[in-house]
Every structure is written in C-alpha cells, then in structure tokens.
C-alpha cells in the first residue's frame, strides 16, 4: 500500500501550517479548513458557481477548501477558496462578487460558511 505523503505544493503546506497554528489557539474554523485542505486532491472539494448560487445568500462570504468551478451565478457573494477556474472568476466578478484567497480570509479574521 502506498504511503500517504500529503500535499506537495509549498504554498498549500504553508497555508495548512498557519491554519493549524490558529487551530491550536482555539480557532475551530481554521482547524476545520486545515483538515479539509490536507485531504488528497482527488477527494478535496469542488464546488460549482451554480451550487453557490442556489445555497448562498446575497452578500454572504462562502468558504471553499478546494476548487471553484464554472457555472451560472446571479448573486453578489464573496468566495474564499484555494483555487478557482478562470472562467468562474470572470463570471463571479461580472455580477459584482469577488474572490479572495484563504490566506486573506484568515488574515482579516473573518469567517464564512463552508460549502462543498
């Protein structure tokens, strides 16, 4: 059986380490995101804009510990994610929404609803 090595992307490793450090400080939200990001990429969450459109409220911050894929969106939301497709980012910004990284979300001290 192959040995699990974890994420190999250095930026992702650093992000997970920062989130775990905040988790030790009692931030359960950061600990949960770190746990989800440690999963293998084939298991990590992938959420479409259409799914975000169906479940998110206008003006809400949505956290995706994985990748955001293209779809139809009509709501102005903030999406914090590890990765996003270029077409999904363009579609989200076209309706007035914005994309931030998980690093920026953690530095701001805000939280959001985890989806996926």
Our measurement of the CA-to-CA distance between the termini, rounded to an integer number of angstroms, reads 29 Å
Rg to the nearest angstrom? 14 Å
Mean pLDDT: 90
Number of helices: 5
Walk me through what this model shows.
The chain is α/β, with parallel strands linked by helices. It has one domain: Ribosomal Protein L15, Chain: K, domain 2. 41% of the residues lie in helices and 22% in strands. It has 5 helices and 5 strands. Strands 1, 2, 3, 4 and 5 form a 5-stranded parallel sheet that branches. The longest helix is centred in the first third of the chain and has 15 residues, at 10-24. It is globular and about 40 Å long.
Task: Give the structure's gist in a few sentences.
By secondary structure, the protein is of the alpha/beta class. The protein is 41% helix and 22% strand. Strands 1, 2, 3, 4 and 5 form a five-stranded parallel β-sheet that branches.
């Amino acid at each position: 059986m192959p040995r699990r090595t974890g994420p190999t992307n250095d930026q992702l490793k650093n992000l997970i380490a920062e989130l775990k450090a905040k988790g030790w400080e009692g931030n359960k939200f950061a600990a949960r995101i770190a746990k989800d990001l440690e999963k293998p990429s084939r298991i990590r969450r992938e959420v479409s804009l259409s799914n975000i459109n169906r479940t998110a409220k206008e003006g809400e911050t949505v956290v995706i510990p994985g990748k955001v894929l293209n779809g139809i969106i009509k709501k102005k939301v903030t999406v914090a994610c590890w990765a996003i497709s270029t077409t999904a980012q363009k579609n989200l910004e076209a309706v007035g929404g914005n994309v931030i990284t998980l690093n920026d979300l953690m530095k701001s001290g805000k939280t959001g609803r985890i989806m996926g």
